[in-house]
Amino acid sequence: MRIELKSDPQVLCGVRGAISPIAGAIGFKEEDCRAITLALDEAITNVIRHAYGGKPGRRIEIELSKLNGAKQEQAGLEILLFDRGVKPKPDSFKGLPPGELRSGGLGLHFMRQSMDKVVHTRVGSTNRLRMVKFIR
């Protein structure tokens, strides 16, 4: 499934309302549906805030794919998020040092806690965030 959004915080409500039923239909438990929803919400918020500097109307693409692995731990959901915003600083995806608490900057931490894989790459002028959650 492919979804195209504009960089506007108002789209987050619609995304939150759509992703949980999709994850549930794939076979995730309610707790995991909430975790996936939180991770995608944080990822889109980061694109709007950091990649696009809060500018509205910029394109964000989301691809959702059901993973049908031969083994149970390979079955799940892959989320790809694409934007054409600014290139993140190299240390942007390191996260906080263990035990450090601060206001803000916890989105990546929440994404990593919620998902099994979180990987950012940049190809040309496109940022790509890949998040994977396996069914347990």
Structural shape:
globular
The unreliable regions are none
Which strands sit side by side, in order, in the main sheet? 1-2-3-5-4
Order of helix and strand elements from N to C terminus: EHHEEHEE
Mean pLDDT: 89
**Secondary-structure arrangement, i.e. CATH architecture:** 2-Layer Sandwich
| Biggest β-sheet description | 5 strands, antiparallel
CATH class term: Alpha Beta
Which homologous superfamily in CATH is the superfamily?
Histidine kinase-like ATPase, C-terminal domain
CATH topology: Heat Shock Protein 90
Gap between N and C termini, in Å?
22 Å
Q: Helix tally?
A: 3
Overall SS class: alpha+beta
Helix content: 25-40%
Radius of gyration, in angstroms, nearest whole number = 15 Å
How many structural domains are formed by the residues? Answer: 1
Number of strands: 5
Which range does the strand content fall in? Answer: 25-35%
What would the keywords be for this entry?
single chain; 136 residues; alpha+beta; Heat Shock Protein 90; five-stranded antiparallel β-sheet; 3 helices; 34% helix
